[in-house]
UniProtKB/TrEMBL annotation:
InterPro entries: ACP-like_sf, PP-bd_ACP. Residues 1-76 form the Carrier domain. Gene3D superfamilies: ACP-like. This is Acyl carrier protein. It comes from Aquirufa aurantiipilula. It comes from the Bacteria.
Length: 76
């Protein structure tokens, strides 16, 4: 599974929406994710993609799935 698809799946699950409803250019705020959801996804990112110290603030700095994917690809 690629990074983008993985994030779409995680966002859809946390936001209780279908994957088809996830717009990769929409800001994370638009999915109404709470801080616990962001922390959960950050933790899963570390585990799934062997990243260290994925700070939940990345979801503010790289505020869309597409932007976060670029950051993640540069980390690997």
């Amino acid at each position: 599974m690629n990074i983008k698809q993985w994030l779409v799946t995680q966002i859809a699950s946390e936001a209780s929406i279908s994957e088809k409803e996830v717009d990769c250019d929409a800001t994370f705020d638009q999915f109404n994710l709470d801080s616990l959801a962001i922390v959960s996804i950050s933790f899963e990112m570390e585990s799934k993609f062997q990243l260290e110290n994925v700070d939940p603030s990345l979801f503010s700095e790289y505020n869309t799935i597409n932007k976060l994917c670029v950051w993640m690809e540069n980390q690997q």
